[in-house]
Amino acid sequence: xxxxxxxxxxxxxxxxxxxxxxxxxxxxxxxxxxxxxxxxxxxxxxxxxxxxxxxxxxxxxxxxxxxxxxxxxxxxxxxxxxxxxxxxxxxxxxxxxxxxxxxxxxxxxxxxxxxxxxxxxxxxxxxxxxxxxxxxxxxxxxxxxxxxxxxxxxxxxxxxxxxxxxxxxxxxxxxxxxxxxxxxxxxxxxxxxxxxxxxxx
Length: 201
Description:
Blueprint: H1 2-8, H2 12-21, H3 35-42, H4 44-66, H5 73-88, H6 101-111, H7 113-130, H8 133-154, H9 161-177, H10 179-186
Helix pairs in contact: 1-4, 1-5, 2-3, 3-4, 4-5, 4-6, 5-9, 6-7, 7-8, 8-9
């Protein structure tokens, strides 16, 4: 769990922007170190790169732990929670980190991949319809525990209570992490995700 917390806290977005542009991303845009703010600072291509690296960062500790003999579901989920916690409260940045979306996706790609796909569909529809990343993330997070429950029901599986409780806790946490952005959406000061470039010639 200590390793997972430290690993999850590696500030990918901060490191990438620091290496590419030599600046502290926390002083630009929304001040967040996640992929969306990296996009504002470095451009769209870097959004996908940082998003993917954060997702891989989330997946690896859970994947490795799942391969360890004798590690039951609870132990794997404790490692998963530590990984996400590290991202939210990075020990490398004074216990201030990102919002946990990308890392959580990586974690649940190992724990519940089908539910991640369902949640991603909801996220994509919300992003296209509303054009706000924060609202789309909240929509995807809220639907996720229901997606896990539905997937288990459809497949006739016994419900994993620990996984359901964990996914619900993560959904609530991720929603809470977006509260500042949602406030900006309501006040119409939050930038939209897709913007049209204006020709100046």
